[in-house]
């Protein structure tokens, strides 16, 4: 069941703000049918969603919100479910106070994740879940791959984590749990093809023995996971998740910075794998700082609507002139997080990762001219 949208008010970097249609309203004229609202909102594709933007614009936070909501949809008796909900955001949280935006702690703070028919709504102001009875039992299975590589820390990790307070959040704990599950007996043909592609790159397969992960090379060598190049560990982890049967039709995959520490030559491979997964019914969310990786997803797709880009950026909350008299006391800022979405990278403005790429090309060009 795909996630259709998310709405955020005064949670972490997302501030209460007035704007037109979720865009920066400065200089815009209001027209019939336009609406002003104070909620950050994005609408998602059923296939692949790519979150781009500067550091500190909330990409990872959005991934964690979606992951927390999907985990809450699993119907199972669990006395610690609410406590683990906070831990998805930070291992230090015992309540929702630290999730509130610093400037709006006394205002209404909430986020809502929806599949278009049902919604999961959590109010930080009241520390309460709304409509969760309609959400609980939807069983939206999800896997989140955090930026931090975790399988190298697996030896005794889960036992220690159950006894002591470890410096890892819930998404980092869960990825070790998921990678430690038994392997699936049957692997679909298209998944086997993906496994074979990854095996070619890592030159082997992944096993777990006595809480420790290894890559067994094709020549028989057994390499401790921590000794592999970190970029290859990302692919090895993906191999293990697929082999364990966790990425099936209807699953939501959230991957934070898949390009991090990965050889750029492997960007096309990862892009093709993600496109193949979405073609077989897996909804995907990735957050990236790489223009090249995002562009590969755009170029390699077969249909335009297979990949939707979501641009997070900091802008001003200044109102159009015709509204300043109506809201004279509005606090205008220039660091509020806005978002816009499109099926093409070039349609997103301001696109900071694209601008960084263009600046590099300008420097290269200037250097070439200077050498003549």
List low-pLDDT spans: none
SSE order, as H and E? EEEEEHHEEEHEHHHEEEHEHEHEHEH
- What percent strand? 15-25%
Cα distance, first to last residue?
A: 58 Å
Shape: globular
For the report, how would you describe the main beta sheet? 6 strands, mixed
- The counted number of beta strands is 16
Secondary-structure-based class equals alpha/beta
Sheet with the most strands: spatial strand order: 9-13-14-5-15-16
List keywords for this structure.
single chain; 372 residues; alpha/beta; 6-stranded mixed β-sheet; 5-stranded antiparallel β-sheet; 11 helices; 31% helix; globular
Task: Please give a quick description of this structure.
The protein has about 375 residues and is an alpha/beta fold.
């Amino acid at each position: 069941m795909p996630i259709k949208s998310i709405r955020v008010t005064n949670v972490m970097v997302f501030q209460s703000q007035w704007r037109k249609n979720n865009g920066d309203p400065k200089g815009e004229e209001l027209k019939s049918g336009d609406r002003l609202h104070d909620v950050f909102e994005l609408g998602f594709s059923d296939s692949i969603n790519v979150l781009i933007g500067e550091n500190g614009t909330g990409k990872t936070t959005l991934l964690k919100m979606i992951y927390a909501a999907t985990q809450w949809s699993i119907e199972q008796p669990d006395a610690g479910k609410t406590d683990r909900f906070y831990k998805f955001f930070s291992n230090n949280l015992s309540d929702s106070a630290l999730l509130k935006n610093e400037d709006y702690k006394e205002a209404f703070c909430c986020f809502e994740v929806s599949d278009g028919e049902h919604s999961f709504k959590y109010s930080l102001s009241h520390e309460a879940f709304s409509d969760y009875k309609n959400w609980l039992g939807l069983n939206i299975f999800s896997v989140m791959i955090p930026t931090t590589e975790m399988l190298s820390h697996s030896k005794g990790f889960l036992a220690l984590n159950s006894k002591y307070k470890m410096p890892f959040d819930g998404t980092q704990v869960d990825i070790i749990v998921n990678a430690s599950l038994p392997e699936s007996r049957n692997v679909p043909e298209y998944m086997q093809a993906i496994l074979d592609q990854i095996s070619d790159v890592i030159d082997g397969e992944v096993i777990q023995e006595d809480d420790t992960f290894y890559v067994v090379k094709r020549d028989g060598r057994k390499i401790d996971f921590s000794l592999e190049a970190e970029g290859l560990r990302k692919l090895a982890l993906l191999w293990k998740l697929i082999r364990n049967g966790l990425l099936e039709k209807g699953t939501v995959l959230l991957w934070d910075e898949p390009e991090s520490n990965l050889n750029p030559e492997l960007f096309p491979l990862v892009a093709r794998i993600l496109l193949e997964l979405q073609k077989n019914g897996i909804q995907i969310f990735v957050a990236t700082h790489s223009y090249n990786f995002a562009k590969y997803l755009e170029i390699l797709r077969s249909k335009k609507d297979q990949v939707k880009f979501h641009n997070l950026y900091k802008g001003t909350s200044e109102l159009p002139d015709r509204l300043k008299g109506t809201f004279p006391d509005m606090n205008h800022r220039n660091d509020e997080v806005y978002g816009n979405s499109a099926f093409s990278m070039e349609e997103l403005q301001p696109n900071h990762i694209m601008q960084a790429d263009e600046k590099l090309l300008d420097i290269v060009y200037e250097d070439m001219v200077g050498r003549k």
